[in-house]
Amino acid sequence: MALRFGRSLGSCLLLALLTGLPAGAECTAFSAGDRKEIHRLAERYAEAWRANDRAAVMGVFAPEAVILPDQQPTVSGLAAIEAYYFPAGGSSTTVVSFENSSKELSGCGDLAYDRGEYRLSFRMGGAAEAIASAGEYLALARRQPGGGWRWVLYTWNRLPAAVK
């Protein structure tokens, strides 16, 4: 049985469980403007990677952010995320293309999620040929105290070539 969350009480409860909305707290409506801002956050993330802009990549994450990389341990906090994405002394990675496509986007009050698919190609070190990857992602965002939205949780999984 597939679970669908859309604009339902289920999505609010899921978000509350995952991101700490106090039990019994009322959920304000998720507006079209909120939806547009979350969509724009996802676009900014892809644009930052396409530009190979370290500061812009890190700028989409909240200070308390956590990433759950495909088949790897959890990475918590901005400093750890930056070290994961941009390792000191590691081989340089150049993103050639990055596209994401949202399949489900909703929220509740100051919390939102975006679930979708991505396609990415990148070069490691001085390699001439790019490596392609495609898969699915799930991102949770929180409205920040000064306004705007940032990712608080981002996870992805690569799909085998036969499934892509």
Protein topology:
Elements: H1 9-19, H2 32-50, H3 54-58, E1 61-68, E2 75-76, H4 78-85, E3 93-108, E4 111-124, E5 131-143, E6 149-158
Parallel strand pairs: 1-6
Antiparallel strand pairs: 1-2, 3-4, 4-5, 5-6
Describe the structure.
With 164 residues, the protein is an alpha+beta fold. It contains four helices and six strands; from the N terminus they run H-H-H-E-E-H-E-E-E-E. It has helices at residues 9-19, 32-50, 54-58, 78-85; strands at 61-68, 75-76, 93-108, 111-124, 131-143, 149-158. Strands 2-1-6-5-4-3 form a six-stranded mixed sheet. The model is unreliable at 1-13 (pLDDT under 50).
- Strand percent estimate: 35-45%
Q: Percentage of helical residues?
A: 25-40%
DSSP, total strands: 6
Query: Roughly how many Å is the radius of gyration?
Result: 16 Å
Q: Average pLDDT value?
A: 85
Distance between the termini: 22 Å
Number of helices: 4
Task: Indicate the overall shape.
Answer: globular
- Going by helix content, strand content and strand pairing, the class is alpha+beta
Order of helical and strand elements: HHHEEHEEEE
Spatial arrangement of strands, main beta sheet:
2-1-6-5-4-3
Q: What is the makeup of the main sheet?
A: 6 strands, mixed
Given as residue ranges, the uncertain stretches (5+ residues, pLDDT < 50) are 1-13
